[in-house]
Design a protein that fits this description.
The structure is a homodimer. Chain A is an alpha/beta fold. The first copy, chain A, contains 13 helices and 10 strands. Chains A and B meet through helix 11 and helix 13 of A and helix 11 and helix 13 of B.
Chain lengths: ~325, ~325
């Protein structure tokens, strides 16, 4: 199985095609002067419209549809963040959108997707059921089904985050990226490695979903039977094939972080950095804390991608009050 | 009683004197396309080091002390945010700092001030007792006592926020500023009105502390007997004389906002804007919500100053889970 990796010009074309509705999110200092001379920055895609980086890919994919395809409407499956972004982008572009979600998806995310204008079709609580349902909708209703794991335009949209990191922090040495299907890591790594091969790009997964970490060990994409993680945005039980090819070729490694450490990272971001970040967006912070114990940070300029901030306020309250070492109910 | 208002060159000198430790905080979009063509931005001083805009004034005041004064050490009174900023700036500059706080100050803020390196002296729970204690420390120990209500350097430090708002959003039409002593409003108004007199600068106070609003009605600074507000950073029972002179001369008005509306503004900022803002920093958002009912917003470009983000995580959790129309316990 061979895959052509994304070329820089493809990612640049996606960046040039982003409409003004997509925010140029800020790259902010988190901790300027660490012992040993290191410093820590955040690319704040939690401050992106619809609350996550997925808006870039949603626009990139939808804007490339032909007039005939636009009229038919588009569909994808999502655990929540892509759903909201897809719905919102569809609204802006006048393209009807349908989102397939598992029945167990939090009511908060289903409701938000509907509010943003998409039709939601619920399917059974099995990762592969999402793709089966998508296929059926495509066959029965003629919808353009987007395979968010393997779609090249999706990865190019993600890659635009990498271009912006380099523009705002050209001397960055390490970039940490959350991993689920691996698409974000693939896109960001493709952009960064093409321009500055010496930068280390590292993926971070929760221990409760180590599918891509296992795949890297196995040397091929493998599935795990189920996931148990507080990161409701990082639930893919396997990496995509196209993302995985990028990860094998370009990435320095995947790190695993404990679930309780992720909860405390969300709290640290709210309390110390004044940023609301969802658990799946906070895994990079979890990997580096405590800063003094992070060899990757010693004397280096590190950027953490905070990929999203969508967490119901009541759930965030649970994260904020959860004793160290424990998980919220 | 006549007061010389701040001159633009004084504020510019303060801006030029800010050290690299003071962050150039981002000015971010909050809501880009409102009905009626309005748009809403935030100057994010909650993302400032030490969690509030006070760091600018702390550095400005301390950096201007003579070598002899630096050796004696400096003192001020504060409800919390100025305390943390003063302590931290003192540490960077090598100047011993003492902070006078009322006994009722939240343990969280006292602890934070000590952690940042200041000595804390507690006084009785009366606004004026802070100044009496400060005077005593100055007489007995030779400390340089900073009168944060009337000090010209303090106001110049605050004014640097106004310069940055104009640099980042030159076509802003309305700027909303939280009010306690009125110092921040005075400094920001002095900077903005000197450069662009047509911009409306508006103060916002909580209903539970309407001291500056009352003073504006009375035509002179008046004291109120006590305050009852969720905004623990907006507790001054009277405006400063120097700030008040600026407010009378430069400001379009002071708006009052309900306490329960402030709680919901904190929640909106966390949930929708992904920013952690303390209640005293969120009053501008409380004034404008719901956006459709805010005549000040119709068709205009409005900037809200989010002045700080220091709220204990457990307290923030209470704000996030508090039913609309009620106050946290």
């Amino acid at each position: 199985m061979s895959h052509d990796l994304l070329r820089l010009d493809e990612i640049r074309a996606a960046a040039a095609g982003l409409p003004p509705q997509v925010r140029r999110t800020p790259l902010l200092p988190l901790v300027e002067e660490l012992a040993g001379g290191g410093s820590l920055y955040a690319k704040c895609e939690n401050l992106q419209r619809t609350g996550s980086y997925k808006l870039r890919a949603a626009f990139t994919v939808l804007a490339r549809l032909s007039p005939a395809e636009r009229a038919r409407g588009a569909a994808l499956s999502s655990s929540g963040n892509f759903a909201a972004a897809f719905a919102w982008a569809g609204g802006v572009l006048g393209i009807p959108t349908t989102v397939v979600m598992m029945k167990k998806t939090q009511a908060y995310k289903v409701e938000r997707t509907r509010e943003m204008g998409a039709r939601v079709v619920l399917c059974e609580d099995r990762f592969e059921a999402r793709f089966e349902t998508l296929k059926r909708l495509s066959a029965q209703e003629g919808l353009v089904a987007i395979d968010h794991l393997e779609d090249r335009s999706v990865l190019c949209g993600h890659g635009t985050v990498g271009l912006e990191i380099l523009q705002d922090l050209p001397d960055v040495e390490v970039v940490l990226v959350p991993v689920s299907t691996g698409g974000l890591l693939a896109g960001v790594a493709a952009a960064i490695k093409a321009l500055r091969p010496q930068i280390e790009v590292v993926g971070v997964q929760p221990e409760g979903n180590d599918s891509t970490w296992r795949s890297l060990q196995a040397g091929r994409p493998v599935s795990i039977p189920e996931v148990h993680t507080v990161c409701d945005a990082l639930t893919s039980t396997r990496p995509g094939n196209l993302p995985f090819a990028h990860i094998q070729a370009l990435v320095s490694g995947i790190e695993l972080v404990g679930e309780a450490e992720i909860v405390q990272a969300v709290r640290w971001l709210a309390d110390s950095a004044k940023l609301m970040v969802e658990p799946g967006g906070a895994v990079g912070v979890a990997h580096l804390r405590p800063w003094t114990a992070a060899p990757r940070l010693a004397g280096r300029k590190v950027c953490i991608l905070l990929s999203g901030g969508n967490l119901a306020p009541e759930r965030l309250a649970d994260f904020l009050t959860c004793p160290p070492g424990t998980l919220p109910a």
